[in-house]
Fold these 2 entries.
Entry 1:
Amino acid sequence: MTVMEQRGAYRPTPPPAWQPRTDPAPLLPDAEPYRVLGTGAADKVDPELLRRLYAELVRGRRYNTQATALTKQGRLAVYPSSTGQEACEIAAALALEERDWLFPSYRDTLAVVARGLAPASALTLLRGDWHTGYDPREHHIAPLSTPLATQLPHAVGLAHAARLKGDGVVALAMVGDGGTSEGDFHEALNFAAVWQAPVVFLVQNNGFAISVPLAKQTAAPSLAHKAVGYGMPGRLVDGNDAAAMHEVLSEAVARAREGGGPTLVEAVTYRMEAHTNADDATRYRQDTDVDAWRDHDPILLMERELTERGLLDDDLKRQAADDAEAMAADLREHMNQEPVLDPMDLFTHVYAEQTSQLREQAAQLRAELEVASEEEVASGEAEEETR
Amino acid sequence: MSTVAAKPVTKSATKPATMAQALGRALRDSMAEDPSVHVLGEDVGALGGVFRVTDGLAAEFGEDRCTDTPLAEAGILGTAVGMAMYGLRPVVEMQFDAFAYPAFEQLISHVARMRNRTRGAMPLPITVRVPYGGGIGGVEHHSDSSEAYYIATPGLHVVTPATVSDAYGLLRASIASDDPVVFLEPKRLYWSKADWNPDAPQTVEPIGRAVVRRPGRSATLITYGPSVPVCLEAAEAARAEGWDLEVVDLRSLVPFDDETVAASVWRTGRAVVVHESGGFGGPGGEIAARVTERCFHHLEAPVLRVAGFDIPYPPPMLEKHHLPGVDRILDAVARLQWEADS
Ligand SMILES: Cc1ncc(C[n+]2csc(CCOP(=O)(O)OP(=O)(O)O)c2C)c(N)n1
């Protein structure tokens, strides 16, 4: 007799009917990116909001072109442009209240500026004078994060702490399509959903991670779909439609504030420039693709809508252009000044109190600097004499 | 440890080549010779890597052999472990020093100890290429010297070339090694050039041999990677002060070539270790201790260290104050005139 025969009529009992913990249907994103502009849905949007978004887009574009120009003049070491992605950047900033927190990635200088930070302060990281040129606590803006997706768990932790405190503060964290492949992205989403943290994740899907296209990054139907597996809603939005972006992010922020938990928003957009000014995009993409997106430019979409509804008057146009020019002039002026740096700062902010080891090294550098400046003076005097 | 057989001499046409080109050629030759060699990483395909080291490999060998991965360092190295378990020889590219950190879990918990935990049944021939170090004006997280983390992890070889021809030879040897190798590429030497003949035999030493780059009699500068050219420059400058400095290029931190280093210090009686990563807990401490253990009775002065400061890597506009340069090395050399009572 075999073991099976011995066991006779044994049949494993089926597991009790399995129930998903959450109905996935309401969590699923739309099949198509959600749009407002040009769909008739914009009729419901406050005309003043549309006009404001327009002005902010114009200002944002100017910021991008100015910063790019500064790299060409050698005033800025590197700039990852968000040209074409301004609607996402602006909407991210405008969806938040002052008390809320923004967790930007290295491409999101514009969101930081749209939040109200002085245009030049947002650029220290990229210019190279200091890593973060502002006080995160003062502005409720985390440092621009260069390691990808690593800021996402921070946003969840801050939101979680805010929820424990019960103060209604929300965190919005930004990441690129490539960044969604990192482990930190997945861990952050999972924590956020389990803790029902008041956090909004904004993925700017601009088609590329440096040279790698989305198809090599994910096989999911959309990045927004990734939300469902963690138990949070995913929203798929046209990232060049500032009104749609504003609506979806504002809703997600409101939901988070009311205790509804996290949302993952995928903004479908396009990176019009190369990865940074140092990158050669011709190695991995065709100009024709870029041209196709030109017709779907965020400013163009907004202009069409405003014109159709008779909201784009000369006043608004001129005022937006003037504002943008003033901002660019201010940025140029600040960036054309040589930053005044004190090498001794190297040791100032490593610990609350300098270690003996750093005091020793600071003394060494101070002595070196003194020798160098004495030599400079001496060579200056020598030059004088030879004249 | 393995040695790569020198290729037969065909014709000898030396041309200037950059270190990046020599590294690319080493990958190409390894892939051509051994179909189990696979390259994977972020942007290694169409773009050829952000430093263009993998340029042309995807076109020549196809995307299955030179693969643009999803953007996930732990995933890149973790899948490389599985590939190696199944008989392939993965060469992974980490885009920058600080972006290798997500992969530390895989490196430390699995890559470094697989041979040991399986009693030798499962060696992992993986090469992890990491561009490292500063001096290129990179923004935050693009300039770390992470070698101390790697050398503190038993089970890994850690090598770093300083010349064009070593870049080729050491990378060939690393890929051929049956043990995991962390291959540290000094970023600021990527564009350094030398006359080099890719068709002539390369001097490929087994991993673990240091080399005397410049003979001298009055003191030894022990260094590696990006600091080698700086030390050679310092040695030239020191001649004016009457110092005849020997420069030892370690090339490999693990294994460490005690013989070459000790033989040099026996001759000179004085030593300075130079590297740009922080001094506290850095490789220099280990090296100084080893030199002291082996050469105590030959030493005329304590072994000194010239290292980067013990600070997070500074913003580019301040990095020149952090990186050990010629002057700081010469200061240390002057301090070698050590008197017991001083
Ligand atoms: C952990 C980590 N790995 C690699 C890099 C190098 N890197 C910088 S940007 C980038 C591509 C990012 O693509 P994506 O997330 O789509 O954002 P985008 O640049 O398109 O805004 C890579 C690979 C990094 N910054 N951090």
Entry 2:
Amino acid sequence: MSFADIWTPVSLTLSLAAINTLILLLIGTPIAWWLARSKGRYRELVGAVVSMPLVLPPTVLGFYLLIALGPNGPGGWIAGLWGGRTLAFSFTGLIIGSIFYSMPFMVQPLRNAFGAIGDDALEAASCLGASNWQRFWRVALPLARPGYITGAVMTFAHTVGEFGVVLMIGGNIPGQTKVIAIALYDYVERLQWGEAHVIALGMVVFAFVVIAVTLTIDRRVNVPMP
Amino acid sequence: MNRAFPALLLSAFLFTTVAHADSVSVAVAANFTKVAEELALIFKAETGHDVTYSFGATGQLYTQISQGAPFEILLAADDERPTKAVADGLGVDGSVFTYAIGALALYSTTVDVADGEAGLKADAFDKIAIADPATAPYGQAAVETIEALGLTAAITPKLVTGENITQTLQFIESGNAELGFVAASQVAGKTGVWIVPSTLYQPIRQDAVLLKIGETNPAATAFVDFLKSEKAVEVIKAAGYVVE
């Protein structure tokens, strides 16, 4: 058994999850804010689109991504910026796939947190002369902290467990696209069950820790009621 | 009597259909997908039996069978695993036979592979797809070919690996990989194909084995006999395989 072989997919997965969580914190905030505060007629439509990965089989997303990231899709054009032909089989491609795939895990908790703030606190801040930015940074953000923690933990964990999307667009390149779930699948296929056990048990422990942490945060931080 | 007659007729009718329409479940190496589907139609027309296929890389399928998957026949892409199935007590003794000998092909939708060797050395590509050599015999043959041409160092950084030969073809068809090694049977009749000289890799002898689960199923034994029949052999040959 070689631990170097196991460590490569583990470290790749952790960096994929970390980068994806950061990007979704940035993208998810305005989307969740708009979903929580807007009175627009398209709100539910956008909300439904963002939530679709919760019910779609990951392979559906993977199939569309394979086409979209390829040389005949927009991904080929983007890859052309640095001389590539396709975004499939690349770490960048996995990041793009993960953003779509984990979007609801970030947006939902944020939307709920922003929704729970209510108008009173924000109006009080306005009366005290706060600008829109100040209202967001000094009032909304601190009050939404539990939502941010839950969203970040769930997004990170969800990305760590990605399989279907990566199977479709990854091409199984060690150090590039061979993530934990794919490595586990390969070990099982090759009857290398010793390595498979190491990864599987690691994932079980990881999942337990994530759930325990999330529950603890939920208990510790009281979500302010409007 | 009058009232019982229709019921009798109905039950007789039901009984005959049940007795004749058995079904057999077959695990098939991905390279044989197209031919297998063609064969199922002929088999159904000849015997009335249905065939249910599960396609995958030979290694994948073998793993599933060793874990009790309910397959009655294995059509592998190599001659190792069917023999192993018998040794492991999963296959029926003496039921192993070669149903096809496969050819490896280099296939591309974007670059010229008319002379494959030159095309591979030209270095005019970014990604080349092969099937997972650990589980797919055609992937192993691709690795042997690359090695025989002395291109291992040049090509290894460009390799992308499909889970099986079908996904490998899909990587090439979608244009994500410019070229790749697949089974000749998969790209029969297409342009942009270079049939790899059989001297560059170990022959891909594809063996079949009757698994113990299927030993008592008449549809399973009928399908094994059918695979050896002249009609089936013709179809297999027409798809680009050699049959001894």
